[in-house]
Amino acid sequence: RLWVRWGRRGLGAGAGAGEESPAASLPRMKKRDFSLEQLRQYDGSRTPRILLAVNGKVFDVTKGSKFYGPAGPYGIFAGRDASRGLATFCLDKDALKDEYDDLSDLNAVQMESVREWEMQFKEKYDYVGRLLKPGEEPSEYTDEEDTKDHNKQD
């Protein structure tokens, strides 16, 4: 079971093309919650790890760095809450807010799109924590919860 889990990890961006993806050399991130400021540090330019948030959940998309990295077509979402941009199919920086976005002005179709994107990210990438609302306290995660979530995703 361990071999299957770690063996699949190497199948990220660039695998099989003779280059090792940055995700292959990074350890699995411990689960924690992020403020918007903390999330912005993981945009792929300051650190090789790339995170983004969808519908209040933060995902490690490092293995998709050819898409979400600084030069990727969706690099605008790296280190940000991508919910509004994904919901509205807009890749303009103006579509992303610099403060917490509660998405309350999105219509039902757009909110359904956000939920569908969230499910796709859950299937493909590691869930690493929640995006905190202003003033919200982070949760404390145990190693047991981390392992349980990791096994559940496989």
Summarize the structure.
The chain is mainly alpha-helical and 154 residues long. It has helices spanning 2-9, 22-25, 36-40, 65-68, 83-88, 108-124, 143-153, and strands at 51-54, 57-60, 126-130. Strand 1 (51-54) and strand 2 form a beta hairpin.
General description of the model:
Residues 137-146 have a biased composition (Acidic residues). Residues 34-132 form the Cytochrome b5 heme-binding domain. The protein is mainly alpha-helical and 154 residues long. The chain has a domain at 28-130: Roll (Flavocytochrome B2, Chain A, domain 1). 36% of the residues lie in helices and 8% in strands. It has helices at 2-9, 22-25, 36-40, 65-68, 83-88, 108-124, 143-153; strands at 51-54, 57-60, 126-130. It has a three-stranded antiparallel sheet. It is globular and about 40 Å long. The chain starts with a helix and ends with a helix.
Summary tags:
single chain; 154 residues; Flavocytochrome B2, Chain A, domain 1; disordered C terminus
